[in-house]
Each structure stands twice: as C-alpha cells, then as structure tokens.
Amino acid sequence: xxxxxxxxxxxxxxxxxxxxxxxxxxxxxxxxxxxxxxxxxxxxxxxxxxxxxxxxxxxxxxxxxxxxxxxxxxxxxxxxxxxxxxxxxxxxxxxxxxxxxxxxxxxxxxxxxxxxxxxxxxxxxxxxxxxxxxxxxxxxxxxxxxxxxxxxxxxxxxxxxxxxxxxxxxxxxxxxxxxxxxxxxxxxxxxxxxxxxxxxxxxxxxxxxxxxxxxxxxxxxxxxxxxxxxxxxxxxxxxxxxxxxxxxxxxxxxxxxxxxxxxxxxxxxxxxxxxxxxxxxxxxxxxxxxxxxxxxx
Length: 297
What we know:
Oligomer: single chain
Helix content: 40-55%
Distance between the termini: 11 Å
Strand content: 15-25%
Structural class: alpha/beta
Strand order of the largest sheet: 1-2-3-4-7-8-10-12
Number of helices: 9
C-alpha cells in the first residue's frame, strides 16, 4: 500500500517548507494540498494558493509525489490548469499528480461571483473538465467543443515528463463519477461519504468503499479496461475517523482497506486544533513502525 499526507496551505513558506520536507523524510509516497481560493473553516485564517505551494514543495523535495486534492472546474479552466500541471511535472522531475473533483462550491463560488449549479449541471461540467484535461495532458495539440469548455488548437509543449501523461486522480463517490473515473483515471479517489458532517469510524467505511470499488470494477469491465490498472485511494480524516489515533489503529485501517483492494491511504498532517487535530508524535511513530518497514520491504 502507498501512503500519502495532505498538508493544508496555511503556513508561510518559511514554516510550510519544513512540513513538506519532513513528509518526504518520514517516507510518505505522496503529499497533497487542497485546491481552494478560500476554505470553509479558514475563511478568516491564512490560506495560500495551491500551485505555487506545490511548485515550491517540488524544489524542496526530491522523491515524494505532489498532487492537488482536488482541483475543480469551479475555479479552474482545463487549458490553464493543464499548463500549470505540465509545468509542475517538469519542475518536480516527473512527480506531479493531477487530482480533480467536481467541486463543492461555497466560498469559492462566492468569491468568483458564480451562480450555483444544479447537480446534473455540475456533473456535466465535471465530465467535460475531466475529458478535456485528459486530452490536453496527453496530446501535443487539442481542440474541443463542449457546453462548458471550448478550446481550439491549444498546444502543450514539451508535454509532461511522465508519459503518456502525469497520473490523473479522479475523485468520485456516485455512479456517474465512478463511470468517469473508469474511463479516464489512473487513480480513483474516495472519502466514502459525501458531506462535511461528523466523521465516522474507519471500519464503517469499509462496506461503503467495497461497494464503490465493485462498481468501479464493473464500469472498467464494461469498456474493456482491466480494473487492476486503476489505483484506489482513500482519503481519511474528513469523513473517515480514527486512522491517526495510534500506530495500532493506522495498521488496522491499512489491513481492512487493503483487504478490499485499496492501494493508497491518505491522512492529514496533524494540526494543533480543529480541523484534523492530532499528535505529530503519533505520525512520527507511524512513519517509523509502518511506513519505514513498508518502504524497506
């Protein structure tokens, strides 16, 4: 199993740099940050931009994968976003991961003066966003005509360091999004349940994710894709609780999720207060007793 960590973009770079470097030192396979203009619990608190943060992290590290968790069509256009991801892949030496989702709206929509979309409209826009982003990152030249996005003769040279493009990580919980992930994703991303309420203990997520993963298998088989070619990434800490309580709980969660085919487990870097409050010491212990032996193996 691969292990990842989400680092909130809340600290000035003189302090944030230490966290990203430490994430690599601890043995995490990939590190991510949220892609928002403002975030629900941090509207009155420091919050830095995603792509400059990841680019700075790329220059401060040498091995760890770096990704958006997740970019959305609410604040991104596929053309400019694909260009930025191509550049991040170049700066990082081929370590960028393109995490994308439908978008939750809220403060970002308010900041940009956007009209809220209906669920069908949001799903249609997301479908175009995924499809066009995939094409842009794969092809030297792309033209596309959609309801939400259009581009003519867009060139991305020299292209991604990773071929045929950098990995696409598609966040999806429902049937339509999972179908989209089956067609385009290298990594499927889930938090088990939608919403921003009280998280539930990680064992309760297992049957939900098992069912979602089975649907992903079915959608892959329907288009002739080997289901084994798509990684399954679970983000904990938002709707799934208890994974970072102790080394034992983390090891237990890895076992339960691994049994249902999860390939990547992501936690949040512990913070001193809500949200994602936790102990850095526990993370250090997990790195020493779980991540380090796994990397050695």
